Amino acid sequence: MTTPTPRSVNLRRVADEAGVHPSTASRALNPATRHLVAAPAAGRVQEAAARLGYRPDAAAMSLRTGRSRLVGALVPGIANPVFAPILAAAAAALAEDGHALLVADPGDDPERAAEFVAELAARRVDGLLLATVSLRDDPALAACLARGLPAVLINRSGGEGVPAVVSDDRAGMALAVRHLAALGHRRIAHVGGPAPLSTGLQRREGFEEAMAALGLPVPPGWVEAATAYGRAEGEAAASLLLARCPGVTALACANDLLALGAYDACRRAGLRIPAAISVTGHNDMPLVDMIEPPLTTVRIPHEEMGRRAARLLLDRIHQGAPAGAVVLAPTLVERGSSGPPRAGEGDAGSL
Amino acid sequence: MTTPTPRSVNLRRVADEAGVHPSTASRALNPATRHLVAAPAAGRVQEAAARLGYRPDAAAMSLRTGRSRLVGALVPGIANPVFAPILAAAAAALAEDGHALLVADPGDDPERAAEFVAELAARRVDGLLLATVSLRDDPALAACLARGLPAVLINRSGGEGVPAVVSDDRAGMALAVRHLAALGHRRIAHVGGPAPLSTGLQRREGFEEAMAALGLPVPPGWVEAATAYGRAEGEAAASLLLARCPGVTALACANDLLALGAYDACRRAGLRIPAAISVTGHNDMPLVDMIEPPLTTVRIPHEEMGRRAARLLLDRIHQGAPAGAVVLAPTLVERGSSGPPRAGEGDAGSL
DNA sequence: TTGAAAGCGATACCAC
DNA sequence: GTGGTATCGCTTTCAA
Hints:
- The structure is a homodimer of 351-residue chains.
- Chain A is an alpha/beta fold.
- Chain A has helices at 11-18, 22-29, 39-52, 58-65, 83-95, 110-122, 139-147, 169-183, 198-213, 231-244, 256-268, 302-319, and strands spanning 70-74, 100-104, 127-130, 151-154, 164-167, 188-192, 223-225, 250-253, 278-280, 297-299, 326-328, 331-333.
- In chain A, strand 6 (188-192), helix 9 and strand 7 form a beta-alpha-beta unit.
- The radius of gyration of chain A is 26 Å and the shape is elongated.
- Chains A and B meet through helix 4, helix 5, strand 2 and helix 6 of A and helix 4, helix 5, strand 2 and helix 6 of B.
């Protein structure tokens, strides 16, 4: 390898052009130190910088200051459409503060996620947004803690004292369950998310608590956790439930992708939605209003989630603020996939 | 601001641990220069590096070598689901070469895109993937050229000699038109993409050429270009066409989002799909198989597109290869949104 | 085969 | 208020 070609326009060039020392030019261009420079000199520097199209070199700045104006994000499956609006909102909020978002997708492998944290740390990211974290002893989160890297969880909680922006998952499932109950359903099964994820656990508990509060039974075997948040996994879990739960009239799913899988399972079983069976999702990801039938689901505020997480992280980066958890309120979006149960099946009916 | 806290484990530390000079450690850790180091010393260095969990500091490396192992991507609207699989594939291919992908979303504003190029250049990205480029005199492309930054266009062509990975847009529209004609349609209108984009132009030309080749007329006003690739813009354009084109039996859309908007327009006009009117899309973005009716569309090979673009860019980065355009073959995916025209309306029927 | 030293570009101290 | 200078961590040329 050869010696690098010199950057076109650097601070020194700007300083020469303005007839000042590089130190002075640096001070004049930094809003925080500008007051240390005489007005005319500062003016000449800024003019020269603008004229030459000067931009501080990020690598040099990063090396010297230890910060990169880069924030990393870890998501499990960028293909999951629910992340698009969340990340877009986070990126926009970060951009307002001069930060760029570096998205990495380690999939569902926690060790790989921890490896990515190390790589991002080597790139000197100022902080991380984690959408991958599992509930206990997550390696990626541990890697952040070990390095003193500010981290904020998105749509996941990671235990006591870990900053996070989440939707109220228990309340969300309660909305879905009460909606189904109000339609007359009594035999409701739950397609759950992966147990090690906070969303999987909380939504399952939310389902069970809401059922109990309504005096509805949840027989053993009426809850089936999918192995991952995916359409195929949702179909597998829903198929099991359809075979196992006599007289089930509704499937409350922990996630929209699982609900799409439930659609597949119902279709294969010859059950029309919502005539024969109702299905609800969770997240209100893009396009679920266009499927047939349009999915009744629990809307989490994607944009707000991304924005709040970004702001929380920036607060931690700038002020080292401790920053607890933010819990956002979900809402129910009633569409076409839920309706009254078939006559005679709403109560403890026969098979 | 204070002086930064020293990085935990740096090259010097590794060298000390191995009992060699930092230069030697550097050589021992770089595969390209390892042969210059005596085997036992090299072994000690690698062992020490592994034991301490050493990672070279990206900022320092970047500053010294001029390369960052970072590649930028510019997309117009990260929320557009078609980009998710493309970017995921590109990121995976780049990761194999040690590069990370930095995604930026300037929306539809070309000036803003050029601004982002400057910002990414200041971050010393090794190259750029551009999905935003318009057909002529694109500012972002010009900004890359001016800086000598390797760039590859994705799903867009930018004129002679600009490296690009695209689907054969003319052929794609021809697939859709021939499919509709084979079903018996003769009165087909086109919901076009924005004219300044290569996809908008090529797909429109592909539509017109295919219609001409089949001997089907395209009366004036039967082509309407949407102002942007979006659902709302598609609805607006499709509504115009429905009002303006007597006896139209099919809408061939330049893009899936436009087709979703066409669904909205047809619904508002009380036209059932495909009974009263057929609709086709282009791209086969995620989830369009789940909408009602499932969308007949032209599939572009997303993953291959992302992968090929990444490889092309890496070739340019490493070898300065000139790298022409890659044209991929689209395929037709027949689903439920296309069917035979209503009886008596397939040929030059009355209103 | 290895050590010494320069330098990428910016910033933060210390003098003046 | 301004200039000088050391320094962040690494690579690479030059000398030995």
